[in-house]
Write a structure and sequence with these properties.
21% strand; 6-stranded mixed β-sheet
């Protein structure tokens, strides 16, 4: 059985301000537009995750909600995980290893640099740095989620909002 993991970096958010904690930063207009476009792109490729997992940080969970809307995924079904905010690659791995076996396609929403490191850790790909609202698709052949670890995945593609704009 093939399993597919879609790693999504949160979209563009408001700048850090003195009165707003980093965790509470919300998406700006560009971030909302990019999130919607990336969700439509996944739908156009017939990629419909059966599970969404997101950092609890506002900008990540808002990215998940907007993309989910384009993919007919209910916001109330998004799983929020504290460890995806500043938990490092180990935190991301713990979340992936705990995904129930019945899930085949999972979208996971997080933050740089951790999400880029995690994509590289799983696939061995050299990504440099994922741009805001970009995604990486990694496939795992004949592995349960609990068996996913370093270099067990196959890098399929990297897609960014800029690439979408440039192709139109």
């Amino acid at each position: 059985m093939k399993r597919t993991l879609i790693l999504v970096r949160h979209a563009a958010a408001e700048d850090q301000k003195l009165m707003v904690r980093d965790f509470e930063r919300e998406l700006i207009g560009k971030g909302k537009t990019d999130s919607s476009a990336m969700g439509r792109w996944l739908a156009s490729k017939n990629i419909f995750p059966d599970r969404f997992i997101s950092s609890r940080a506002a900008r990540a969970s808002q990215t998940a909600v907007i993309m989910g809307d384009q993919l007919h995924f209910q916001a109330s079904d998004i799983i929020l995980e504290d460890i995806l905010y500043d938990g490092g690659a180990r935190g991301y791995l713990a979340v992936v290893n705990a995904i129930p076996a019945e899930s085949e396609v999972v979208a996971l929403f997080g933050h740089n640099p951790d999400i880029t490191y995690f994509a590289e850790y799983l696939s061995g790909a050299d990504l440099d740095s994922m741009s805001k609202c970009s995604l990486v698709i990694i496939e795992f052949d004949n592995l349960e989620w609990a068996e996913v670890s370093a270099k067990t995945g196959t890098f399929i593609l990297y897609q960014s909002p800029k690439q979408l704009r440039d192709s139109n």
